[in-house]
Design goal:
By secondary structure, the protein is α+β, with helices and mostly antiparallel strands. Helices cover 15% and strands 26% of the residues. Helix 5 runs parallel beside helix 6. The radius of gyration is 27 Å and the shape is globular.
């Protein structure tokens, strides 16, 4: 119900003359104003991610009422190009400027915005932002879940904790942020120790000097270790370093957590761009560089969009190969007719930019890749073990770099339904524009449980 390019019969209001009459000359022989597409937002709430059937019925009924009011206000047929229910509550409608003004004044309509166009932008690398080690692209980010069950012996506690860390191979130091809550009493000691799960291990660094404030049942540690020895560095990458916090009631440790690399495991990233090259090694499963075997997070193991024969939109493509890394790919009415340079249909990448952005966000570790025009090296995304869903929102007839706002909103609608954890959205945005004017900015704010990665630079939008 989320990606609807034509409304159900209950939402079609063919009142009066056909749509072609809008462009016909009037009685004086003058040409009527040219229609353009507008995004019309209703005042009611959106559905969000996983609506109950009753909520779905309510929004469909309210949208039917809204379309009826709009059709009455402009005294013309109303056939939406898209209907939005999850990212926003509204439609993409073809209107003349005069009709758009009438619609904006219609009770129940919150915003009317002429459709805009965006263009692809650039990206950065995991080593540059500190998500991986330079040259080797080994993991730089680590995390630990601190629980009493991991302690030796296990501690019966309701306390919890979490640690995040970044390892700098050049200085051999580990920068940590550790937070805990609910201890039975103030910590009596805290340390990084070396050992496998279930082992007591040996202390390699005391956290006492990194405590935030006075010891208490809730607190934390923030600091940077002394340079690790070669053996300790090897243990870090072998998952043999752990954090332990002891109390008087649990001198062996009330909380403990093993430091493990954080490379995007279990995270689903939605990429809104120009499509993807599904045959590229960056999106294969298992990964060619480190052999990582991805898991499909969908309970039934199914794939989405053009990879799903039951999607129902007529765009199933048996030649587009999804896998447990690339678990879905969508194309939209605006972009489905624009092929890639090899003549293959969307959502195959018609620019190369979408594959670049998807690879930067979550590309596999791949060795032997051409680097800087000569030689070879290792490439990887920021989260090489994450899953991907791709939404092709770019490419219209005559301009492969144009990304229409109606398709962007449809993709955001679908991404919310799909339950992505993050959205990579590397399309143009002007630093001086008013974000409240544009529907997708308000939609991302309203659905801020989904994190968005978007560049803070770019060219201004181009109205249609």
């Amino acid at each position: 119900m989320s990606r609807r390019s034509l409304a159900p019969l209950t939402l079609l209001f063919l009142l009066g003359l056909g749509w072609a009459a809008l462009a016909a000359p009037d009685a004086s022989g003058r040409q009527a104003p040219q229609a353009a597409r507008y995004i019309v937002e209703l005042a009611g709430p959106t559905l969000g991610g996983a609506p109950a059937p009753a909520a779905l019925r309510r929004i469909e009924e309210s949208q039917a009422v809204g379309l009826a009011a709009i059709a009455g206000a402009i005294d013309a047929p109303v056939v939406p190009d898209y209907i939005y229910s999850h990212a926003l509550n509204g439609f993409a409608l073809n209107l003349t400027p005069a009709q758009a003004a009438q619609v904006a004044a219609t009770p129940g309509v919150a915003h009317v915005q002429r459709e805009w166009f965006e263009t692809p932008q650039t990206d950065t690398s995991p080593a540059f932002i500190g998500a991986a080690q330079a040259t080797t692209l080994r993991a730089a980010l680590f995390y630990a879940e601190l629980t009493g069950a991991q302690a030796v012996p296990p501690a019966g506690t309701g306390a919890t904790g979490r640690a995040v860390a970044r390892y700098d191979a050049a200085s051999k130091t580990l920068s940590l942020q550790i937070f805990y809550a609910g201890l039975s009493g103030p910590p009596t000691s805290a340390a990084i120790r070396e050992g496998a799960p279930g082992e007591v291990g040996a202390s390699i660094y005391s956290l006492a000097g990194d405590a935030v404030g006075a010891p208490a049942t809730d607190g934390g540690y923030i600091g940077t270790t002394a340079p690790l020895s070669t053996a300790a560095e090897a243990s870090l990458f072998a998952r043999r370093l752990f954090i332990t916090i002891a109390t008087a009631a649990a001198p062996g440790g009330e909380l403990r957590g093993q430091l493990v690399p954080s490379r995007g495991e279990g995270v689903v990233i939605g990429v809104l761009d120009s499509g993807i090259d599904p045959a590229h090694p960056s999106f294969k499963d298992p990964a060619p560089g480190d052999g990582y075997d991805h898991s499909n997070p969908r309970a039934d193991g199914s794939y989405l969009g053009v990879c799903n024969p039951n999607d129902g939109d007529g765009r199933y493509d048996p030649g587009f190969q999804c896998n447990d890394k690339l678990i879905g790919a969508y194309t939209f009415a605006e972009t489905s007719g624009v092929p890639d340079p090899q003549g293959r249909p969307s959502p195959r990448d018609n620019l190369g930019h979408g594959s670049h952005v998807a690879g930067t966000a979550a590309g596999n570790l791949v060795g032997g890749a051409p680097v800087d025009g000569g030689g070879s090296g290792i490439i990887a995304g920021v989260a090489p073990h994450a899953n991907l869903i791709v939404y092709d929102v770019c490419g219209i007839v005559g301009n492969g770099e144009s990304c229409p706002g109606a398709a962007i909103l449809a993709a955001l609608d679908q991404a919310i339904v799909d339950g992505v954890d993050m959205i990579s959205y590397s399309l143009a945005s002007s630093a001086t524009e008013d974000p409240w004017r544009y529907p997708e900015a308000r939609d991302l704010l309203a659905n801020r449980g989904v994190r968005t990665l978007r560049p803070r630079f770019g060219r201004p939008r181009t109205p249609r």
